[in-house]
Structures are given as C-alpha cells and as structure tokens.
Amino acid sequence: MAQHYLAMSRPGRVPGPGLTGATRRRTDPEPARLLILSFAALCFVAATVVGAALYAVQTIDHSAVSHEMERARVALSVLTTGGATPGAEMAARIAHDYLLEDARFVPAGSEIESGAAIPVPGTGFELAWSPRLLGSEVFMVLAPLRLIVSAIFLGGVAYLVYRMYGITRLLDERRRQAQTLAAQDSLTGLGNRLAFDQRLEAAFASGRGAALLYLDLDGFKQVNDTLGHSAGDQLLQIVATRLGRLAGETDLVVRIGGDEFGILRTSPCSREGLAELAADVGLALGAPFELGGKVFGVKASIGIALAPDDAETSAELVRAADEALYRAKATRGGFTFAQTARLNG
Questions:
Q1: DSSP string over 155-223
Q2: Overall domain count for the chain
Q3: Does residue 160 share a domain with residue 105?
Q4: pLDDT tens string 258-285
C-alpha cells in the first residue's frame, strides 16, 4: 500500500538528479567524441612515426657525410705528402681508393651547387665530391615498402577504431534502452517508481514544483478473487490506457505498485484544473470493465497534493498526497485535496 511507498520515498532514499539518465549521458563519453579522439590519436602516432623516420634519415646522412670528409682529409694528407700537385690523376685515385664519388679538384672559392668540399692545404684548390646520402638512399629504396606496410597498418588501426565506434554506439543504445526499461512498468508500460522519483526530484530541483494525483482502485481485490490474477492484470492494463488518455503532454502517469497509480504534473496548474482532472479520472475508471465475460465496475480513491501549497519537498508532497488518499478511501471513493475538506468527485 501507500505506506510502503512512503518508506521508499523518504529523504536519502529518493534517487537524486545525479542518477538520472540525462545526467549519466552527459558524463559518459559519446561515440562521436571517442571516434574523433581516436582519429586524432591515430594522426598523432602517424606524425610521430614520420617525424622519427625523417630524423633518422637526416642523422644517417649527416653521419655518412662526416665519415666521407674524414676520409677526404686522410686522402689529402697521404697523397699530397712530398709536394704532389692536385690534379685529375690524384682525383681519380681518391675516388677509387677512398670511395669519394666524382672526386675532383676545383679552384678555392668555387661555387658548388651540391656536394661536399674541403680545402687542399698549401694550394689554391679544394677537393670536391658528391657525398653519398645513405639515409636518403635507403629511405628511397624502402619507401614504397614502408608506404605499403604503413598503409596496411593504419588501415587496420582505422578499421579497429571504426569497429570500436560501432560497438560503442551499440552499447550506448543498449544502455539507453536499459535505462528506459528500468524506468518502465513491465505490465502496463507506464512509468514506474524510478521514473516517478526522477521526474519529481528534477521538478523540485528546478524550482518548478509539482502536483500529484495519488489514486488507488476500489474493487480490484474482488476482480482478482473472482477471475484470477490474469484478469486483474488485464484490468490494470485497461486502467493504464484510460489514465494515459487523460494525462496531458507533460504529465507523467506511473504505476506505483499493485493497484496504486499516480499522475505527476510538473507544468503550472491550479486546484480547479487538478479537480477537473481528478473528476475525469473518476468517471473514466468508473466506466464498466468487461473481463472474462463479466462486467465489473471499480472506483478510484484519489488524493491530491500541490507544491508549494501543500509541500516544500518531494517527500512531503508524496506524504501529503498519501494522507489525502486515505481520507478519500475512508469516504468510499472520490477525490480529496491535502489539508482541505473533501470535495465531491
């Protein structure tokens, strides 16, 4: 009964706004954001690999040129001993013996478009040659293979990222479905206590306030005892359908438990409007139900509470509506406002 629900709704037991599905979605990473971050990380890795490769090529090239210049100095120190004059024959020998490609002697200060050169001590010449850039040569040889391997690797990583994106989207959708099911009554399809608590707490947190119609079916036990629980379940489903037709677009209709239902209105409303809604609910549920070939009639006792007139917190609103409901049940149906005299319903 309603007392059991009040125990569930006391301060400290009501799920706060931090537990709502909307807040969880804001704190969870979105699939699109994950895809963007993964792509950015992939680009960073690719840029790092390319940068490391270029640095390695430059380092190898510089080391190779340094070694050739050292060989050139050794060659000059050996071949120019005794006053030998630099010439074509000496240049050919240097190219052959010391592995300096296209070695030649040029006048000092000559402009060399590409290559390396060192001065010949005691002469007006420079030894020039075309250095081998080993790093660049190896890079050019291996470049096609590296490109193919890199393309395959990056393509595989991109595929894995895409698959992860798809899985993340699927998990996100499943999580949303689970949140929806968790806040839905399995029998009637209406909201359940979780949905009610979340909407009510959000309304008070935003300062909008709320109005609550808390209703209990009179005569439901007779249907269960006469036709069985399957007929009782069918009756609850019919009640849920009729309540759903009466509720406004912003109203939340919930099954609290058993034969107890609630209509939560978080939009601005008046006592007159709530009384009209309660009267419509009474008429709709008072219409005959045909179950198992028999016609039954049930009535609804309704307690109404309005915030901030009757309550300043969500727990107080539920308590006020519950007390009004029991005063309505004591008079065999109809509806009663909290802390007011009974109105005809």
A1: HHHHHHHHHHHHHHHHHHHHHHHHHHHHTB-TTT-SB-HHHHHHHHHHHHHHT---EEEEEEEESHHHH
A2: 2
A3: yes
A4: 899 999 998 888 889 999 999 999 999 8
